[in-house]
Amino acid sequence: MLALMANTRSREVASLSGVGVNSPGRKLFEGVDLSLKTNESIVVRGSSGSGKSKLLRIIAGQDSPDQGRVNRRGGTTQVFVSTTFEDCPVDTKLTVREYFLASRGLVELEAEKAKLEKAMSLGDNSPRTIQRYGWVIENYESRGGSTAEAEILETLNNLNVTGQSSRRVGLDTRLDTVSSGQRTKLAIGRALFSNAELVILDDPTAHLDSASVDWFTQRLKSANRAVIVASNDDRVASTGSQIVQIEDTGRAFIYNGSLGDFEKKRTAQLDSEQILRTALVRQRDDLRRTYEKFKSEGDFKRSKDFAATGRQMQTRLARMDAEIAAMPEVQATMPQSRRVQLNIQESGHKVSDSSIVIRNVVRTYDGSGGVDTSAIGEIRVKRGERLIVSGANGSGKSTLLRMIASEVIGSSDFGPEQGQIVVNSRQRVGYLAPDHMGLSQNMGVLEEVQSAMERTNEGRAVSVLTAMGFDKNRIRTQKVGTLSAGEKQQLALAKLIASNPDVLILDEPTSNLRPDIKRRLADALNKFDGTVILVDHDPDFTRQISSSRDINLSAKIQRQG
């Protein structure tokens, strides 16, 4: 169902000219020229920290570029969904219905429509009232008001927000009662539902299952809007009419056409440039060796002709140096990164019983939804075991992990309403969730990791940060607040690992992570001697984990690994 269909002629809503951004110690990207038009979608790709999120924030008007300019067509409406909650302020007292309708300006129109209808029912049939009512109805219908509720429900269903175990999420559900995963999905769904001319989405598929991604990619093709998405998901990239690849060198490749064509063209161009660069460097080095040989033997002093030859060689060397410097940088291969390993160590505290026991816990939101493990029975996780918690969004995965973490720190703010969670408080526990990163924006990257260590060990901190994808030459100067969403996720994990936890409670740890770091993390978790309790949306990642047991909160079942 798609109510908002308009003319299919493309029109430019924003453009970028020579846009570049510098980061401490390096350039993120430079020379980006883009034209954002309705009926077209742009997909931005690149590794964590390459500047994808920064580029989107610049387009959204939340940040300014260091070079170049951004032009926006006056009056253009836009919606921006960031990867972090703090970048998406919203009144959490709103219902889902109000949250969606506001994106089309329908809340005010509904209120005025009801007010005018009441006035007319009381006998006000003045020309002014009738004329105003006609205007309201026309705008209400043009914005899809009559079909809006059906569209919202369809969106919630396709994004798997209203599954069997999460019926509490409906039109009248308040935003402050939904889980973090559901809230992210609601923000994505609202953006697609809106009538904004420019939709900006930062890594939207990080919290979507496969079926939801398929539906999402179809909606990206909706008419009468310009869409720019930061995503390394090939399924998303395949829908783009234009692909922007930001290399780690700061160079941006911009291509029109399919993903397959883009990969072929990019590879061919990089190979060609590498061949030309290698050949020119070899010629320059040969010429320099010849020049140095002549110079060391005093040949340039023998005659005016030799001296002139020497000056010509210097001029040629300077010209070749300039030509090489002007060549596009080619991504350097770093084979040593393949040998980097991530090692998770325990605290070494002696604990008589390290088991975590979950007995028939129930916690609801206003009497419904939440989590209920009573039908699953007792869940006992021993030292060295890995428990994977699965289930539909809203089935209580995040709620369960948060309750366990709260029990460990002795907090009664988020305990079960029924049942019991037993954890030995002498165990050192690391807890990570999308809304619980535990980072201080003003601290340095290395300082942040060291703050979690029982005994400061800079070498260990550097080792963990390097394994999590950070450049060891920059970690002493980088500030947390300058990091991308992916880098913050990497840092939060590095901080937990450096704390030498006995128990790791991880809620969606792989969101925004590069594939190589996901593989490294999975390998480290499998070798970890402590306890792991894990929730993650990525089936490829969870399949890599050698789990001791799995529980499905939707199906109410528990399986031994």
Nutshell version of this structure?
The protein has helices at residues 52-60, 96-101, 106-121, 127-142, 148-158, 180-193, 210-219, 234-237, 259-296, 304-326, 397-408, 445-450, 458-467, 485-498, 515-527, 539-544, and strands spanning 12-23, 26-37, 40-45, 67-72, 78-81, 198-202, 226-230, 242-246, 252-256, 356-365, 368-372, 379-381, 386-390, 418-422, 429-432, 503-507, 531-535, 549-552, 557-560.
Strands, count: 19
Number of helices: 16
Structural class: alpha/beta
- As a percent range, the share of helical residues equals 25-40%
Task: Name some characteristics of this structure.
alpha/beta; 19 strands; single chain; flat; 561 residues
What does this protein structure show overall?
- It is a single chain.
- The protein has 16 helices and 19 strands.
- With 561 residues, the chain is α/β, with parallel strands linked by helices.
- The chain is 37% helix and 20% strand.
- It is flat and about 110 Å long.
- It has helices at residues 52-60, 96-101, 106-121, 127-142, 148-158, 180-193, 210-219, 234-237, 259-296, 304-326, 397-408, 445-450, 458-467, 485-498, 515-527, 539-544, and strands spanning 12-23, 26-37, 40-45, 67-72, 78-81, 198-202, 226-230, 242-246, 252-256, 356-365, 368-372, 379-381, 386-390, 418-422, 429-432, 503-507, 531-535, 549-552, 557-560.
- Residues 1-6, 163-167 and 332-338 have low confidence and may be disordered.
- The longest helix has 38 residues, at 259-296.
